[in-house]
Automatic annotation (TrEMBL):
Record-stated family: Belongs to the NusB family.
PANTHER family: ANTITERMINATION NUSB DOMAIN-CONTAINING PROTEIN, N UTILIZATION SUBSTANCE PROTEIN B-RELATED
InterPro entries: NusB-like_sf, NusB_fam, NusB_RsmB_TIM44
Protein name: Transcription antitermination protein NusB
Coiled coil: none
GO CC annotation terms, alphabetical: cytosol
Keywords of this entry: RNA-binding, Transcription, Transcription antitermination, Transcription regulation
Lineage: Bacteria, Bacillati, Actinomycetota, Actinomycetes, Micrococcales
Amino acid sequence: MAARTKSRRRAIDILFEAEQRQLNAGELLKERLAAPVTEVPLNEFTADLVSGVVDHWNEINDLLTTYSQGWSLERMPAVDRAILRIGAFEVLFSEVPEGVAISEAVSLATELSTDDSPKFVNGLLARLAEVKPTLA
């Protein structure tokens, strides 16, 4: 598994854990950076992903809700929400090429979520990439 893919997966873990424990993801990130719970501390890319999602939290959630066509955020599997938030951040606010961000998100959905999730993640993130020029 490539280093950036591992970083994305760790960012998903932090967002997922924060939601499950009803914690602020930014605060959980600070805790993990100060006192790592794994042998390998979090790297800068993981921290940047989580921080980016936290910084754009409301906008990302609003866009996911708007373009998910009948699926509220609450109805989505929790792991899909984490994957989509990171994918949306990368598609909309980062220097990562949109195709790479979408491909990585779909790959992680294939590995971590339901059989229907990769198609859903692909469609929703592709739609965000399509409307991105109109969001500025």
